[in-house]
Amino acid sequence: MRQSVSLPSRLAHRVRTLANRRKVSTNRVLVELIEAGFESQAAEKARFLELADRLVESRNPAERRRLKQELARMTFGE
Description:
The protein has helices spanning 9-22, 26-57, 61-76. It is mostly helical. It has one domain (9-76).
């Protein structure tokens, strides 16, 4: 599918530089970066769900506090 996107000049420059360094098209770099972003999001979601499951199953108060803090950090940031 053909799609046009507008990139801030600084970002476009970084994409072109990476493409030139790797000797591939800017389109290929954009596709790979988008795919990596989706994979990263899926991994983060899986990690969140794993921590949530561990929180539910844990009976150790110290571990529960640590898991809650880690989930809060993932949700709200530092």
